[in-house]
Amino acid sequence: MNTSKPTLYTCLSPSLLHLYEVQDAIVVVIDVFRATSTIAAALYNGAEKIIPVDSVSGAIELGQELGAITAGERDGKIAPGLQHGNSPLEYPRSFVEGKTLVLTTTNGTRLLHMALRNGATEVITGSFANLSAVCNHLIASGRNVILGCAAWKDRVNMEDSLFAGAVVARVREHFQIFCDASLAAETLYRHTQVDTWNFIKKTTHYHRLASYGLEKDMEWCISVDVANVLPVYKEGALVVHS
Amino acid sequence: MNTSKPTLYTCLSPSLLHLYEVQDAIVVVIDVFRATSTIAAALYNGAEKIIPVDSVSGAIELGQELGAITAGERDGKIAPGLQHGNSPLEYPRSFVEGKTLVLTTTNGTRLLHMALRNGATEVITGSFANLSAVCNHLIASGRNVILGCAAWKDRVNMEDSLFAGAVVARVREHFQIFCDASLAAETLYRHTQVDTWNFIKKTTHYHRLASYGLEKDMEWCISVDVANVLPVYKEGALVVHS
Fold first, then answer.
1. Does A181 sit within 8 Å of B203, measured CB to CB?
2. In percent, how much of chain B has pLDDT > 90?
3. I need a surface site. Which of A130, B45, B101, B179 has the fewest CB within 10 A?
4. Residue range B92-105: average pLDDT?
5. A183: which chain B residues are within 8 Å (Cβ-Cβ)?
6. Averaged over A66-72, what is the pLDDT?
7. In what order do the strands lie in the sheet with B77-78?
8. Is the pLDDT of residue B158 over 90?
9. In 10 A of CB B242, how many CB atoms?
10. Residue A215, Cα to own-chain centre: how many angstroms?
11. Could you give the angle at which helices B158-171 and A180-192 cross, rounded to 10 degrees?
12. CA angle B231-B235-B240, nearest 5°?
């Protein structure tokens, strides 16, 4: 094992984050359905910044203060008091360019704030929509990495694990990876990538979101490099890495 | 979905156990390398009972009180003050028949006690060595099931996940399974079962145990039905289910 390489770990649930050394690492927040896909979409389409907020009331308050777009869902519907939903397809360039988006989501926002509180060196967000941007950045950085899956109410979920696996498959040779969660994620990804969409249909989140009519959203969210920017958290907001 | 079927969930780490309704369920404690393999081996070879204990000092004390065999390892060696190790191969019938074994292990014992504290209806232990006995019992019971992986210091590990997947693959039709961890475990198992041993060689625990010269142990631990009894926890000890 080449000990000069940085380490990479996959954390499959926020409830396991305390097991990893966040303080020295880049944390990739992964919430494929749909927070980190929507973040990639909005920034790719020219949004100036995205402010992640834990609560609906916090989003309403900050949105009014900044005159920003407020967005967020609870149970697949726009949360009362907010203007927009959590679909990446709601944020075309014609709507979002130059704007600030205040976004609240259940799982992704929480993990992002946990990573910050634990002293992560850098927090970026990842989804299939920006797979290459994430991988290229991790390889170039030369720093330790934690792939942090947002999961669903702390339960391990498939789509976030699969994205972690896609990253591991691409960056493996550049890191020391002594982590069964990374091996599991990569193995799942390699064996299902020939037909990711049909495999996704077996997952719990597919069934939850399909019951709200969100198949199109999910198809977009597992499409590779369709919004290939690198969102990085700086001074309270996610912006395109410069 | 047939709602009359009992539910099955896979819990990939003790740190996630709080997310599941343990109280109404049979919990299968899974610690393939090596606690639950050794438990199966000793009971299969006629041990009267196995008392799982959290600490080395507790094992020494109880062993003296009962005149029992004491066993347990720390870092791959017999723990100071104990008589025997944590290898399933150390417990042939000629040695263990009719005896009481006081066993302390790092991960498996802890999860077993967590399940009991959380009010599990029944706690059984599983490993490849008793795969069929576990599956047959789960199917016959008609109760909700949690497959509890002991993991390694709370980090998700491959061998316990693979065993959970082997169980899911066999019992799936008898349960409602709405759980991505179960889907992940089953998918990993199905795609690696043609050559489990070579896949196991990629895992973290393989490298840890191989460095102590324990390849033979591990090969035994992933062999199906070589000690096909059902250990169940009753009145403070694991005994063969009657």
1. no
2. 93
3. B45
4. 96
5. 158, 202-203
6. 96
7. B8-11, B144-149, B25-30, B122-126, B231-234, B237-240, B49-52, B100-104, B69-74, B77-78
8. yes
9. 6
10. 18
11. 40
12. 20
* Domain residue ranges in chain A: 8-240
Contact A204 B158 (CB under 8 A): no
State which residue of chain A sits closest to B162, comparing Cα positions: A184
Distance from C-alpha of A82 to C-alpha of B169, rounded to nearest angstrom: 44
Closest CA to A187 of B28, B31, B165, B129: B165
Distance CA A213, CA A76 (A): 9
Pairing of strands A25-30, A144-149: parallel
- B184 and A183: CB-CB below 8 Å? no
pLDDT tens digit string along A153-173?
999 999 999 999 999 999 999
What is the percent of chain A with per-residue pLDDT over 90, rounded to a whole number?
93
> Over the Cα atoms of chain B, what is R_g?
17
Residues A33, A237: Cα–Cα separation, whole Å: 20
Record the tokens describing residue B234, joined without a space.
């009753």
Average pLDDT, chain A: 95
Q: What pLDDT sits at residue A106?
A: 82
Q: Check A178 against B154: CB less than 8 A apart.
A: no
Of B13, B157, B207, the CB nearest to A16: B13
Measured CB to CB, residues of chain B less than 8 Å from chain A are 12-13, 15-16, 18-19, 152-158, 161, 178-181, 183-184, 187-188, 191-192, 199, 202-205, 207
Is residue A2 predicted with pLDDT exceeding 70?
A: no
Mutate to test the interface with A, among B156, B178, B202 (most CBs of A within 10 A): B156
pLDDT for residue B107: 87
Give the chain A residue whose CA is nearest to the CA of B188.
A188
What are the pLDDT digits (tens) for A190-206? 999 999 999 999 999 99
CB-nearest partner of B157 from A152, A180, A199: A180
Determine the distance in angstroms separating the CA of B156 from the nearest CA of chain A, rounded to an integer: 6
Min Cα distance B65 → chain A (Å) is: 37
d(CA A28, CA A127): 9
Nearest to A35 by CA among A163, A190, A196, A184: A163
In SS3 terms, B76-135 reads as CEECCCCCECCCHHHCCHHHHCCCEEEEECCCHHHHHHHHHHCCCCEEEEECHHHHHHHH
Domain A8-240 sits in which CATH superfamily?
A: ComB-like (3.90.1560.10)
pLDDT band at A116 (very low <50, low <70, confident <90, very high): very high
Q: At what angle do helices A158-171 and B180-192 cross, to 10 degrees?
A: 40
Q: Which residue of A lies nearest to B9 if distances are taken between CA atoms?
A: A155
Contact B43, B240 (CB under 8 A): yes
Task: State whether B155 and A180 contact (CB < 8 Å).
Answer: yes
